[in-house]
Amino acid sequence: DTRPCERLVQLGKTLLPGCRILVHEATFDDTEGMAAEAEARRHSTVGEALDVGARMGAWRVLLTHFSQRYPKLTDVGGGLPAAGAILAFDLMSVPFRLLPALPRLTPALLCLFADEVASAGDATDATVGASVDREVDAPVAAGDSGAPPSTV
């Protein structure tokens, strides 16, 4: 559990050839009420975690939070996170060779955990379903071939 940290951003920038994978807690969505709760409880929002990853130049950001009080999947507020983001869940195991493709599994994970996210009161089935329907065939963001940054 953490708030965004400038020292972590700077560390990621100094790692050679650059920070490739950031695992970051993202307990709350970015709505005003949840952002305030995240700050009060010393957690991060999805947007804050993605911002840390972007500022440090991370190739992938693994969004996670494990708690009995919150859904099993990080709540992305009814939308999909950035193209390089990966949503984690309890007992998830990630082989490195699959990292290039994992962000494309986000729509499937949102469908799989839609009932849990909705029952937590943070989203509705209709909102999650609508965002998945719109984004399921979306290509990886421009400039993201899915391959990790090359090493020198």
What is the H/E string? Answer: HEHHEEHHH
Please indicate the percent range of residues in DSSP E strands (runs of 2 or more): 5-15%
Assign an overall shape: globular
Average predicted confidence as pLDDT? 73
Q: Sketch the major β-sheet.
A: 3 strands, parallel
Strand order of the largest sheet: 1-2-3
What proportion of the residues is helical, as a percent range? Answer: 25-40%
| Secondary-structure class | mainly alpha
Can you describe this structure?
The chain is mainly alpha-helical. Helix content is 35%, strand content 9%. The chain is built from 6 helices and 3 strands; from the N terminus they run αβααββααα. The protein has helices at 6-14, 32-40, 46-56, 106-112, 114-119, 125-135; strands at 21-25, 60-64, 85-87. It has a 3-stranded parallel β-sheet, with helices on one face. α1 packs parallel to α3 (46-56) and α4 (106-112) runs antiparallel to α6 (125-135). The chain starts with 5 loop residues before the first helix and ends in a 17-residue tail after the last helix.
